[in-house]
Amino acid sequence: MTDSLVMRSAREQLRGLEDREFSARELLDAHVEQMDRFNATLNAVVSQDLDRAVDAAAAVDSARAAGSPCGPLAGLPMSIKDTHATAGLRTTYGSKLFADNVPTADDEIVGRLRAAGVVIVGKTNVPEMAAGSHTYNPVFGTTVNPYDTSRSVGGSSGGGAAALAAGFQPLSDGSDMGGSLRNPASFCNVVGLRPTPGRVPDPSDGLPFFRLAVAGPMARTVGDVGLMLSAIAGQHSGDPTSLSEDPSHFADVGAVDLRGLRVAWAPTLGGRIAVEPEVLAVLEDAVAVFEAGGAQVDVACPDLDGADFVFRTLRAADFDLAWGDVLERQPHSFKAEIAWNVRQGAKLSGRQVTRAVAELARLHRAAEQFFDGYDVLLAPVVQVAPFDASIDWPHQVGDTAMATYLDWMAACYLITPLGVPAMSVPAGFTEQGLPVGLQMVTRARSESRLLGIAAAFEEATWHGRRTPPLLDVT
Length: 474
What we know:
Protein name: Amidase
GO molecular function: catalytic activity
Distance between the termini: 13 Å
InterPro entries: Amidase, Amidase_CS, Amidase_dom, AS_sf
C-alpha cells in the first residue's frame, strides 16, 4: 500500500485526501516510511522536522473535517531545498559556514508553499552553495541516483529530484541558474521547470534586473509541475520584475495537439556543445515522437552568440557580490570551484559587466524573434548520462575536454541568458538504464504553452512512469 500511495501523482494524492481515502497524517506517515526505507542509501533528505510535520498534517485534517477552506496543496508532504530558508529548520546551503544556521523567517517560495498547505518534512541536499550540477558537500556528503546508486543525481536541486524519484514526496522545489532544476530532473527521470525570470518572485534577489537564477517546481508529471507553479508564481511588491499574471491557470493546462506544431531541434546547440552519443540516441527517438504526431521538425537553433560570455560574466559577478567579502576573510571555507568563480567576479571591470547586461538584452530580443518562427525548441538537457558519483564533475564529454566545472553544463546554461522558460521532461533511457531528459524551450512568459507541449509528449511516451530499480528491493 505504501509504495503505491507514495508513487501516486500529487493530483492523485490530493484527490485521495479530498475523498477521505486517507488522512494527511496517514499520507505523511507513508512518505516518512518510504524515507526510512531508502534515504540511508540515497542521502536525499538531510534534515527532518517530523514533530512539526505531524502538527501541520493534523491541522490540515482538522480543517478538512470542519469544512474550512484548505490550500491547493493542503496535506502534501514535502522537503525543501537546503538553499531555501525555512523558519525554525536548519538551512545549511551545503556549507560548513552555515552548518548550524537556523533561519527565523521563510524565503518567499517556502512561505507560499506553506500558505498552499504543504506539510514541510525536512530539507533536501544540495552542492555546496548550490554551485555545480553534482550534489555533494562537506556537511552532508553525496546524494546518489535512485536509478543507479553509483551515479550522480545532478544538481543543484539534486536532493529534491532524488526524493521525487524515490517516492519521498510528490513535489519538489528548486532553483536554476545554469540548469539546477533541469539537470537533476534529467538525471532522475522527473520533470523540472525553469520559469521565465520574474514568474516565481524572489524579493531577496540583489540583482533582479539581470537575474540568471530563478526558483521553480519539479514533479513526476508535467501536470503536477503546473499545479505547483500555480501555487508559487505571482506578483510580489518586493520584486520589481515579478509578473502580475494570475498563475491559477497553470494548474489546468492540458496537452496540445502536436499536428502542425513548428519544432526546432538543436542537438548540439548549433555546434556549441559536445554531447555523448548515447544521450543523442535517446533524444533522436524523442524528437521522432513529434514528427510522428504531425509536427514540422527543422534542425534550427536560436542566436546564442555571446550567451557563454553573458552567463559566465554575470554568474561571476553574482558570486562575487554574494561571497566575495567572506572569501577574503575565510579563503579556505569554499570548495575550489566556488573560490575560482568568486575570484573571476572580483576581476571583472565595470565595462565587462555592462557589456554582458547589454548582450543579455540583445539575446532576449533575438529569442523573441526566433520564437516568431517556432513554437518550441528541443535540445539536450545534459551532455552526458548520469556519471560516477565519486568524481567531482565530468572532465571530458566524448573526445572534448571540459576545462572548468561549468563546461559540461552548457546545454542548459546557454539557454539561461535568453530569459525564456525551459524544462526537462523524461525522454527515455540509455542501454544501461540511465535516465535522459529532453529540454523544451518556448518564448518568454509562455509557460502555459510549454506545459501543454510537454504534456503532449508525456502522454505519447510516459517514460516518467518507469520507477527506479531501487524501489523493487523488498
